[in-house]
Please model this.
Amino acid sequence: MAGAIKTHSTVAILLLFVSLSALLPFAAEAARCDGLPGGTLLIHESFADCNRYIACQHDTDHEWYCPTGEFFNPRNLQCEATCPTGRETLWCAGVPDGAFIRVPPTQAPNCQQYYTCFGGNMFLNTCPQGFFFSQLLQACTFSQDDC
Model:
């Protein structure tokens, strides 16, 4: 009887481990909306597709498209007749003041740097030596996992 219980326990632990392992890649994948409030609208990282944008809900990125012939303007948070110029500097447009974002996709990846957003403007910050920025936690941490 003890052998049967041990076998069932081993199988249960193995199934739990396999289930958790399957979730890890999804949990560790960084999203643009990590740590940002629901309802935040962000410029899409593809500049060729000016009609696309990201809507944040529950730390999840949801991709949306403007109606045909309209383009997303992150300054006004709406679809308009023309594509705004200078899109590469608009990463903080639509982001609440005081929120932190990781280095935009148009820049070289750097887990120690991040930006503070105020009035749609980006202000560069650097974590102390040995710390890494976590957008999800909105702080510098010891772990590179959220980078």
About this structure: The longest strand covers residues 52-57. The helical segments are 2-28.
